[in-house]
Amino acid sequence: MKIQKILNNNVITTVDEMTGMEKVVMGRGIAFQKKKGDVVDADRIEKVFLIENENENRKFQSLFNKIPLEYIKVTEKIISYAKERLDNTLDEHIYVALTDHLAFAIKRTKAGIRIQNHLMWEIKRFYKKEYEIGQWGIGLVKEELSVELPDDEAGFIAFHLLSASMGENMMNTMDITEMVQDILNIIKYDLKVEFKPGDLLFDRLLTHLRYFAQRVINKKYITEEEEPFYDFIKNNYKQAFNCSLKVKLYVEKNYEYEVSKEEIVYLSLHLQRVISRFKN
Predict the structure, then answer these.
(1) DSSP state letter for 79
(2) Which domains does the chain have, with CATH numbers?
(3) pTM for this prediction
(4) What is the Cα–Cα distance from 12 to 31, expressed in whole angstroms?
(5) Cystine design at 90: which of 10, 112, 164, 256 (Cβ 3.0–4.6 Å)?
(6) pLDDT tens digits for 230-252?
């Protein structure tokens, strides 16, 4: 392994001889008294990053000249822990976004500035696993950097993980979460039901609403075709169908998105399961 570029005394880049891809190699003093083309001291290697997206790789490399090495190490540990706990693949942008966020959060905390996460209730309720990882993360920051971040930051870490798993930016993820909460409130009061997080039926509905909200935010329409089950749903699952129409009205009024018949059918089927469960 040879040095291609020196970012600082502790970080270099190299090219994988098998794949030809650039890798970022981190280790204390790994580039000390070294130059391009020198062989990397294997004993000094602490972590190797392989970020396939060239743009994200450049952004990640730029962080090493702006952010303390210890912060980057902690962030990497949080991401590795998240990958072990979560079923979803995380977009490579998480390395840039979460590292940058944590560095700024630590700076704010040291300055006595606290930013409130106004979606904490939704995060704790809908995204319990991501929130638990966030709590683990702020515990790691306290242990390794001696900085006690507020619990709101566990929620922000959870949001970054959600964004990475959905391939969305932070703002879209927050909008999606707010929309899902509003739709659940419509369903709750219209059908007179109370959901229990962790229940399989609730989790299925939540997953459907999350992807539906993602399509709405990104203005991605399901191609409108003749929906053969629309009239059947309308005539046979009237309560679920009428509730779906209320969701349709809310979305079209607030997000300028035309909800298709196919979306109504899918949502009605999920709601019919909810109705059947509570009747039983």
Answers:
(1) H
(2) 1-50 (2.30.24.10), 52-167 (1.10.1790.10), 182-279 (1.10.1790.10)
(3) 0.83
(4) 7
(5) 164
(6) 999 999 999 999 999 999 999 99
